[in-house]
Specification:
The chain is of the alpha/beta class. It is about 55% helix and about 10% strand. The protein folds into two domains: about 130 residues, Rossmann fold, CATH 3.40.50.1010; about 45 residues, no CATH class.
């Protein structure tokens, strides 16, 4: 299962976008379907709450979102506190350390400061935009489907199987395990 860290701007976008098909909202939908695992640390949840409320998201919705992260996400203890180079924005260090300590494959962000250091961490974690992340997830799922179809492990139209699997992480994980 893909393990990812969501920067605050991705969470804010998912919470405020009116576009139900936005990449940020799609990431949350895939997480709810157990297609991906989202990692978090305490400092990230504090930042999420502060920014969401400051940007006009209701306190009730913010509390619900934080509760979902705690219940469904994976809490990561930050045990490695020194990484170089640091992002220019010191608040972004939590996201980087959470990803590195939690062995995340991706940090999903619109943040320029994190993208500025992406090349330095390319062997450890991929720093990408929400749309890129969804594209990579879709490609991984299509590869699983193609492999399973070619081996006769599943039957059906590849597009219909894809549509089913992006909404059902248990089935996707079962097919990946075959």
């Amino acid at each position: 299962m893909t393990r990812a860290v969501l920067d605050t701007n991705t969470v804010l976008s998912a919470s405020t976008s009116e576009n139900e098909r936005s990449a940020s909202r799609e990431i949350i939908a895939r997480w709810n379907a157990r297609v991906i695992q989202i990692l978090w640390c305490d400092d990230m949840l504090i930042e999420y709450a502060e920014v969401l409320i400051r940007e006009g998201v209701s306190i009730e919705h913010t509390k619900d979102l934080i509760r979902i992260f705690r219940d469904q996400g994976e809490r990561i203890d930050l045990v490695h506190f020194h990484e170089s180079p640091y992002p220019e924005d010191i608040d972004d260090v939590y996201f980087l350390l959470c990803a590195l300590n939690g062995h995340a494959s991706h940090i999903v962000t619109h943040d320029k400061h994190l993208h500025d250091i992406a090349a330095e961490y390319r062997n450890e974690v991929r720093i990408c935009y929400p749309g890129q992340f969804i594209g990579e997830l879709n490609e991984q799922i299509r590869m699983v489907i193609t492999n399973a179809l070619s081996r006769g492990l599943i039957e059906g139209d590849a597009d219909k199987v894809f549509d089913e699997l992006i909404r059902n992480g248990q089935k996707l994980n079962a097919i990946e395990a075959l």
